[in-house]
Every structure is written in structure tokens, then in C-alpha cells.
Design a protein that fits this description.
With 199 residues, the protein is α/β, with parallel strands linked by helices. It has a single domain, classed as Vaccinia Virus protein VP39 (Rossmann fold, 3-Layer(aba) Sandwich). The chain is built from 6 helices and 9 strands. The chain has helices spanning 9-25, 41-49, 64-74, 112-121, 147-159, 168-177; strands at residues 31-34, 54-59, 79-84, 98-104, 126-136, 138-139, 166-167, 181-188, 192-198. The longest helix has 17 residues, at 9-25. It is globular. It starts with 8 loop residues before the first helix and ends with a strand.
């Protein structure tokens, strides 16, 4: 029995602005680890548009059927099926090295200890001169960048107090501890941002 394709409507709205960033930042990269592939829609869109990349999907096991369904429909040769990566459990991280990392809308969904674990474990999967891109909403100077982000944060914390929009400066600090240099903060539609780091 075929699995219905999961659909995250936000991906159809944000995928092309994100792709414009990845075209530039991943132009000279070869192997991407996507942390938190979600439905798999981003992986399919980006891998199709950037065929020079090997796109390695990952997420919690409960999301794998949907990811695999999208990958099966797309039939792309440059997408690797998902591994069961849990940010807070280092033993689940792959041992392969990647020269690019991409993650969208994960840091505000994960708990802060999980975010800390993510950055602590990045060095083990990064190749030399790797590029890391995080997409999502971020606070600046401890302040929300829009009323809609403040409302979104309240909704996140009401659903789970461990969630919430993260401060840009706190993410930069974790990245620096992981040996990453902050390169650029790129404003994106709908009060989101792409944060770019390099090893």
C-alpha cells in the first residue's frame, strides 16, 4: 500500500528563496547532510535543482516513511535515504563526513539542550572547509524581529515549553565553540533568516 505524501505548505513558499542561498553557498560543495528533513520536500526540491550535490536526508524514525515516499516519487539519483538522527543522542549521528550541512526550522522545535548537542556533534560530521546553513526564525539582541514571530514563539512554548525561537547571538556562540566562523545573516521572507557558517 502506497504511503500518502506528507505536505508541509511552508516548504512550497520558502523553498525557492532558500534555494537561491544554497545555489551560491553550496556551489562548490559535494555532500550535504540535511538535519531534520521533515517531510522530505526540501530534499527533493534542492537535490533536483542542484544535481552536483549528494543530498543525505535525516530525521527521527517516525518521519522516515514520508521522506521515503517523496524520494521514491522523485526518483533522484543524488538523494540518500534518511538515517535516524536524533540531535540529542550522539550515538545516532552518522560517521560520514560532509562538506555542507543544511537544516530548516529545527532549532526552534528542538529543546535548548538538543540544540547544544547538535552544535557539539557537528565537528564529527564536518569535512574541512565545510559550509553550514540554518534556516528559520531568529531573535536579534534578545528581541523578536516581528509581531508574528512573537506570536509564533508563544504558540511554540504553549505546545511545549522547551521550544522557542532562539537568539542569533546564542547560536553564533555555539557555532564558534564548534569551530565554525559566522559568515552571513541573510534576511528571508516571512521574517525568517538564513545563517551561514564555515568551518
Amino acid at each position: 500500500m502506497a504511503i500518502a505524501l506528507p505536505d508541509a505548505p511552508a516548504t512550497s513558499r520558502n523553498r525557492d528563496p532558500i534555494l537561491a542561498v544554497l545555489r551560491q553557498r553550496f556551489a562548490m560543495r559535494m555532500r550535504v547532510l540535511e538535519i531534520g528533513s521533515g517531510t522530505g520536500q526540501h530534499a527533493v526540491h534542492f537535490a533536483r535543482a542542484l544535481p552536483h550535490l549528494k543530498w543525505h536526508t535525516s530525521d527521527l524514525p517516525e518521519n522516515h516513511p514520508g521522506i521515503r515516499a517523496w524520494l521514491a516519487q522523485a526518483g533522484l539519483p543524488n538523494v540518500i535515504p534518511p538515517v535516524a538522527l536524533d540531535m540529542g543522542r550522539p550515538e545516532t549521528w552518522p560517521y560520514t563526513r560532509h562538506d555542507a550541512i543544511f537544516s530548516a526550522n529545527t532549532l526552534h522545535i528542538a529543546s535548548w539542550p538538543e540544540v547544544q548537542s547538535l552544535f557539539a556533534n557537528l565537528p564529527r560530521v564536518l569535512a574541512a572547509k565545510a559550509t553550514v546553513v540554518f534556516y528559520g526564525p531568529f531573535n536579534i539582541g534578545g528581541e523578536f524581529t516581528s509581531p508574528s514571530n512573537a506570536a509564533f514563539d508563544a504558540d511554540l512554548r504553549a505546545a511545549d515549553p522547551r521550544r522557542g525561537i532562539r537568539d542569533l547571538e546564542a547560536i553564533q556562540e555555539l557555532a564558534a565553540k564548534a569551530g565554525l566562523r559566522f559568515v552571513e545573516d541573510i534576511p528571508m521572507p516571512a521574517n525568517n533568516r538564513c545563517l551561514v557558517f564555515e568551518k
